[in-house]
Amino acid sequence: MGLWRFVAQLTKGGGIKNFVLLFLLGLSLSVSLISCSASNAQNSDRLELTLVSYAVTKPAYRKIIPQFVQEWKQQHNQTVTFYESYGASGAQTRAVVDGLDADVVELALALDMKKIAKAGLIQPGWENEAPNNSIVTQSVAALVTRKGNPKQIKTWQDLTKDNVSIITANPKTSGVARWNFLALWGSQIETGAKDAQALDFTSKVYQHVPILPRDAREASDVFFNQGQGDVLINYENELILAGLKGKPSNYIVPETNIRIENPVAVIDTNVDKHGNREVAEAFVKYLFTPAAQREFAKIGFRPVNPVVKQEFAAKYPPVKTLFTVKELGGWDKVQKEFFADGAVFDQIQKKIGNEG
To answer: Which residue, 42, 158, 163, 166, is most buried by CB atoms nearer than 10 A?
Structure first.
């Protein structure tokens, strides 16, 4: 008996009982169709994968993806088609939570990945599913100066000079700005200062910040295109990439610095729905190979693969004192203590008269 004739027989005569039977059958069919779809995806000679990442990784992925596609074809005789989305890390996070069908996501900070996990799209323990605790790229904070460095900016402490104007984004709205804030705060804690001293120093720095752009790109526009400020705080990788695009800048990497860590993860709910978990997990692991790490290193990211790290040692000299968010208490503590409403950053703004 055909499937729909079987359904017709079940529902013949109508009534609530038959409605319930139809509902249960429909539910069963839905589960079966999803299962079949997943099975067919794994066995098909063509696979699809959606990558969502933050903007500055795009040049690297444009090199990495074809390499992975070729390798997968050779090993599995399957063609993988990638769909890609790039944008600000916070915006990408919201998009995935709101339904953007990502299979693999790389974001600017673990705090954003935690939001996706909190939405139930990533299984707990995602950090342990890939090498290096799922941190696929790294960078540090840098100070960009005007040509010739007329204000003689060399250290974090120099940012408190009376005649220095600083451009940095708003940590309430920008991921890079959170890293900038933590770099300032941690530069004091790591050199022996107490919290009160770190608060005083960070407050003095923000007294020299005339405006707080919404994100890193807006901050760069204010500094480079509008000509405001004597110094810009930004990612080292952003500055290297700008140089590769013909916009070299003068910058210093302070010897006490924060290790900016960018995580990658498979979106469990989506890959199970799409039936492409195997290829998604393989792609994530591929990102840690020397071939992929070289592409990240070429555009400004400090390699996490030890072989590639050695190859690029001259381009990325070691930082004397390098600390992490974990040493500051982890992202949950940091978010609550510094960036939540009424927390330290808001208190600083109120203190220096920039509230609201």
So the answer is: 166
* Beta-ladder partners of 266: 104
Q: How far is CA 316 from CA 132, 254, 301, 310, 348, in A?
A: 19, 13, 9, 9, 34
Q: What dihedral angle (degrees, nearest 10) is formed by the CA atoms of 119, 122, 125, 126?
A: -130
Interatomic CA distance for residues 114 and 136, integer angstroms? 16
For helices 110-118 and 175-189, give the axis angle rounded to 10 degrees.
120
- Of 141, 210, 232, residue with least CA distance to 178: 141
Residue appearing with tokens 């991921």: 175
CB 269 within 8 Å of CB 38: no
Q: Are strands 231-235 and 166-167 parallel, antiparallel or unpaired?
A: parallel
Helix (H, G, I), strand (E, B), or coil: what is residue 243?
helix
CA distance 102 to 125: 19
The half-sphere exposure of 212 on its side-chain side, counting CA atoms within 13 A, is: 19
Local structure of residue 301 (DSSP, 8 states): P
Taking the chain, what is the end-to-end CA distance rounded to the nearest angstrom? 70
CB distance 283 to 49 below 8 Å: yes
The partner residues of 79 in beta bridges, in order of sequence, read 46
- The span from the CA of 23 to the CA of 46, in Å, is 33
Token pair belonging to 255 = 């010897």
Residues, the chain, total?
A: 356
Q: What is the pLDDT of residues 282-312, one digit of tens each?
A: 999 999 999 999 999 999 999 999 999 999 9
- Residue 100: partners with Cβ closer than 8 Å, 6 or more residues away: 52, 85, 92
Judge whether 262 and 107 are in contact, CB under 8 Å.
Answer: yes
- pLDDT beneath 70: ranges in the chain: 1-43, 355-356
- Phi and psi at 318, nearest 5°, equal -65, 150
* pTM score above 0.85: no
At 299 the three-state DSSP class reads coil
Residue 286 contacts residue 292 (beta carbons within 8 Å): yes
Kind of pairing between the strands at 231-235 and 141-145: antiparallel
Q: How far apart are CA 231 and CA 250, in angstroms?
A: 10
- Residue 319 DSSP class: P
